[in-house]
Amino acid sequence: MSLRTLPLLFLNLGGEMLYILDQRLRAQTIPADKARKVLNDIISTMFNRKFMEELFKPQELYSKKALRTVYDRLAHASIMRLNQASMDKLYDLMTMAFKYQILLCPRPKDVLLITFNHLDAIKGFIQDSPAILHQVEETFRQLTEIYGALSAGEFQLIRQTLLIFFQDLHIRVSIFLKDRVQNSNGRFVLPVSGPVPWGTEVPGLIRMFNDKGKEVKKIEFKHGGHYVTAPKEGSFELYGDRVLKLGTNMYSMNRPVETHMSGASRNLASRTQESIAPNPLAKEELNFLARLMGGMEIKKPSGPEPGFRLNLFTTDEEEEQAALTRPEELSYEVLNIQATQDQQRNKELARIMGEFEVMDQPRQSASKGDDLLAMMDEL
């Protein structure tokens, strides 16, 4: 497991989240000034300096539910609200899109190009906000500084860590199904055509060398694909041609996007549900959330500006039906963490969680403050 995976996971999933929200804001004809405010608030929170400092510290990946909690807070960093079913769909789309990109990544190092594609698109959302743009560019510089010197082996470990994180997710996405890059069981189709990784040759030739390193024989074979040489390497600079298209916005054209659980995913979910038994990593995961959320500065709505609800489904009826049919094991509403009796930690977490309170939802009784699970429920 690589200790350098979390920033790449967070930034790429965050980029996908912004793509989806931008598409839905346009589809629901939300006024331009409100849509711009939502994206600006979320991006500003996402790239907050203190938050990034915590994120870039070497650390192991945590559970999907722990990360989902962070994205839930992030999605509600502005005047927009999502209900549970829409938040579930948003997270499903985010995770499946990035899983697809990691699977098709030509070289392990190209995960950095995928990240830069997301950051390039995010910069496009905030061209009229120089202060937020500076935050994003500062994160880009951090990525270049930390990951620019990593070896191919270290990038391979990062890619492997990401694939392990996503390996049990097989959610069908309509765009992928229509483009025939995903099968009906939720698994992706790996292509046998297109450019080969930069620095490699098109398959089809075996060279044999003698003990002096001189080539003595060539054998050609049919590889069954339609490969071509990569035209050039993608740019790792702040501005440049990334060449690789993975990580760009696939929602730039208005296309309805649906998600469906495959039968295999439902069966797998019932077997892999996080245990309610005491987990030795629970306290560490709690510390992670406290640190990470403590670095997020959520701007509470000010003034008379009203909030609005965003629906990731075509109609309210579809949203309600999705909430009823989603397997309980795949709901991320509650973090299944065993509470510790560390009063100081509980108070600190309660303070941090209080800063993330969604203002238009009634807060439950404060008497539950000592119970960590209840605190998570109150979010």
UniProtKB/TrEMBL annotation:
One of its GO terms (cellular component) is plasma membrane. InterPro entries: OSCP1 (IPR019332). It comes from the Eukaryota. It holds the Pfam family Oscp1. This is Protein OSCP1 isoform X1.
